[in-house]
Amino acid sequence: MAYQRISVPVEGEKITVQNNTLVVPDTPIIPFIEGDGTGPDIWRASQYVFDQAVARAYHGRRKIVWMEVYAGEKANQLYGTYLPDETVEAIQEYYVAIKGPLTTPVGEGFKSLNVTLRQVLDLYACIRPVKYYQGTPCPVKNPEKVDMIIFRENTEDVYSGLEWAMDTAEARDIIAYIESRTGKKIRPDSGIGIKPMSRFGSERIMRKALEYAIANHRKSITIVHKGNIMKYTEGAFKNWCYELARREFGDKIILESELTGPTDRIVIKDRIADNMFQQALLRPDEYDILVTMNLNGDYLSDAVAAQVGGLGMAPGGNIGDFYAVFEATHGTAPKYAGLDKVNPGSVILSGKMMLEYLGWIEAAQLIEQGLQKTIASGVVTYDLARQMPGSREVKTSEFTKAIVENMEG
Ligand SMILES: NC(=O)C1=CN([C@@H]2O[C@H](COP(=O)(O)OP(=O)(O)OC[C@H]3O[C@@H](n4cnc5c(N)ncnc54)[C@H](OP(=O)(O)O)[C@@H]3O)[C@@H](O)[C@H]2O)C=CC1
Ligand SMILES: O=C(O)CCC(=O)C(=O)O
Ligand SMILES: [Mg+2]
Where is the site described as Critical for catalysis found in this chain (predicted)? Predict the structure, then answer.
């Protein structure tokens, strides 16, 4: 496809889908979005780590060919819009992409570009693994007990963008409609938001989690919901997830209520969301995969990441049936922009997830090993250094050089 501002590299090949399988050439062209705020600092450092890991793992036989695509401030400068159509089209054409964080204005302005990308590309599963890396300073006593993977439904819930400001015609009409149908009064000076949750959306995130759990020999899936209060959205989510598990994976699962002893089946349980937050802190080793809705998953992923060292170490991937966009859990951390200061660990680990998605396991392992060894040696960025007496605080770029030096390829 011819693009207006995207330079398509002359070398490299496209990832394709054939017979329902992702086919990855040895020189895949991978679109990246640098991101706003600290995005450029982090991206520069992470790209260096990815290239070095691939070079060391495959000695020239494989190479990622990067292709910059634009969103956020940089896109606005180039195109006069924050999310150009050709950015979405390029990700569709090349299938797998990685991005830095993008700014979203609060209380006004355009809809989140991050959420928009997930919705237009139908990246319905936001997968955020949270595990402890030896030596990382943590606020809890036994961080090694944390090994959870959050599967967050990524397209529905209050993120659907159905929201109207106080005093708009839409808000007034909805208030009037609700009063006429239910007799319940909503204060006229209210903003109104809608929370749709479908059976389709609930089933496909649960299916994705179950497929992952089976392929990766995980122990349990906990459905996290606030179904006692939001019965027909969050409560229905819980019911639909259980139904799907029984219907499609009946011989692979067992319900927590049916357990009588040890099992090699995947245990399916559920927890009400507020309880889940305290359980994650106090009894993390009882939880493995968490499946939940968009907003719960957003809150949970930052909170659980804090237990193993904070947002600087929290990776993620937004994955649909084939399209995938990998990105950190954290945002643009704007106060640190341009300082070469923040922890690139989350984007680096998101890249590790991307390499696993491509099937490039050896390069992914080198990244994990280099990062782990660097932290264990006490060479860390500011966020870890401030909790780690005796450590040596280094800049983003120095941290990544140390990671590469610690790769044993
Ligand atoms: N997917 C995305 O692109 C996301 C975008 N955003 C957007 O980012 C903007 C800022 O959001 P905000 O709520 O401040 O959240 P951020 O995640 O950007 O930052 C919150 C705090 O987390 C810590 N932190 C974040 N990233 C890092 C890192 N790489 N290394 C070390 N510490 C880090 C910092 O803590 P400390 O101050 O303690 O040093 C920082 O002040 C908003 O516009 C928001 O909408 C938010 C989340 C995801
Ligand atoms: O889109 C945003 O600005 C915030 C997104 C977010 O918090 C997340 O993906 O976890
Ligand atoms: Mg978030």
Answer: 159, 226
